Amino acid sequence: MADEGQRLDPQDWTAFSQEMHDLLDTCLTRMQSARDLPWQPKPADMRDGVALRDIAGSTPTAKVFDRISDEIMPYATGNTHPRFFGWVHGTGTPVAVGAEMVAATMNSNCGGRDHGAAEVERAVIDWLCRTADMPQDAFGILTSGTSQATILAMSAARRRKFGADVLKNGIRAYPDIRVYVADGGHSCIAKALEVLGYGSESLTKIPVLNSGQMDMDRLKETIAQDRANGLEPLAVVGTAGSVNLGYFDPLDDLASYCKAEGIWFHVDAAFGFWALLADAPWCDLAKGIGQADSIACDLHKWMSVPYDCGACLISDRDLHRATFTARPSYLASQDAGLAGGDLWFCDYGLELSRGFKALKVWTVVQTIGTDALGAYVTDNCKQAALMGQLAAGSEVLDLARPVVSNVCCFWPKAGDPDKIAATLQLSGDAVFSTTLVDGKPCLRAAIVNHRCTQDDIRLAIAAVEREVRAAI
Ligand SMILES: *Cc1c(COP(=O)(O)O)cnc(C)c1O
């Protein structure tokens, strides 16, 4: 064992440097070979934890790095592969590995205090707000994802509705609330209302029109009725990119209505936010998003920033800060020194200690550029449209709904969709997930994959057709 003050650092930096370079080479080789590395099931001894459980000894670094490379790295989620279309999983980017290495090297705590990392986050938030076309004084914070961002946004909505005292008194002292979202809205909204103490019953689902958009007339009727019954509308949630079908609510109309009614307008734009960077017609889908009081979006889905990273953007920066500033004296800001500065991100969210997520975003956006990022969003929408055409034209598939963005759902005419999805996952052909449309199970592709090509779409559909025919 090494001496005091040297216990955790490498004893031989030269040897360690070589081990790190070897590990980096292994990582780069893996990323370069992504096309040959679909998801594969983990081995049995990994499954029950036996193989990895004994970690309390002191094993040489080279040996541990070898175990990482051989026993862990091969069993990733598979979303780095070009035919991974399951759920909505971003692909990641090689250049972000460099940023992640530097972030770990700096080991910054981005909860507060005066240092460079906070400025990088400020720059990223500023870019996000400008991309959304939010007002000048909008601000925000990077989060672990849209789920976390939704909790922050609903907290800010509550702070605006009931004032500062709600932070002291809790929700008991105030009328019951309702939040409205179109059918097909994401489960993270109900979850946010659960943790805020309102319960998922306070979420009202509004039916959608044939276009898949929220029925505005039904929304207005429901809100009028609720108000007449003494309920307080806390927020309307617009969806930009619904999880099942990739549909977008009429954000412009929702924004005007909410403004006129004095209701907080939140947009769940987990992946749909990035339609803003695409070519027409897709860039028009998210039109009006900048008028929202709050937006939740992800960088780890489209944008392919490695997990995890999302953002909560709020149009009223002072209100946002007033929702979360509660610093005790040991965390007080000073005029000068490390405790100086007025940009403490712990004042904009729930976490006091936070990692340096901003660096990987700043690096990806700057190196790759918004043109190439937008082109890949456009590619994915075209690929989903192609998949829709192939499904509609297939003898053994039925397209479930018209494709509007990057999501395509279809029913096989024979066989069980779950079984077909599992077979194709295990064979390495493609990863589809499954969902229900009209209550009927279907295969679903949500394409946020920068490695995918139109040929991959054709291959994947051919593989599905093969399995459906086998089931006839
Ligand atoms: C993925 C997703 C979420 C949840 O985002 P996380 O980053 O996984 O927390 C919310 N809404 C929609 C539409 C999504 O696709």
- Heteromolecules bound: pyridoxal-5'-phosphate
The SSE order reads HHHHHHEHHEHEHEHEEEHHEEHEEH
The end-to-end span amounts to 65 Å
CATH fold-level label of the largest domain: Aspartate Aminotransferase, domain 2
Structural class: alpha/beta
Question: What is the number of helices?
Answer: 15
Rg (CA only): 24 Å
CATH 4th-level superfamily of the largest domain: Type I PLP-dependent aspartate aminotransferase-like (Major domain)
- Which bin fits the share of residues in helices? 40-55%
CATH architecture of the largest domain: 3-Layer(aba) Sandwich
Description:
The protein is of the alpha/beta class and 472 residues long. The protein has two domains: 15-53 and 73-94 and 369-472, Aspartate Aminotransferase, domain 1 (Alpha-Beta Complex); 109-355, Aspartate Aminotransferase, domain 2 (3-Layer(aba) Sandwich). It has 15 helices and eleven strands. It has helices spanning 13-32, 44-47, 50-53, 61-72, 94-106, 116-132, 146-162, 165-169, 187-195, 216-228, 251-261, 317-324, 358-393, 417-427, 454-471, and strands at 139-143, 177-182, 203-206, 232-239, 264-268, 294-298, 310-314, 397-399, 407-412, 433-437, 440-446. The strands form two sheets. A seven-stranded mixed beta sheet has the order 1-7-6-5-4-2-3, sandwiched between helices. Strands 8-9-11-10 form a four-stranded antiparallel beta sheet. Helix 5 runs antiparallel to helix 13, helix 7 crosses helix 9 (187-195) and helix 14 packs across helix 15. The longest helix is centred in the C-terminal third of the chain and has 36 residues, at 358-393. Pyridoxal-5'-phosphate is lined by residues 88, 145-147, 186, 188, 241, 243, 268, 270-271, 298, 310. Pyridoxal-5'-phosphate binds at residues 88, 145-147, 186, 188, 241, 243, 268, 270-271, 298, 310.
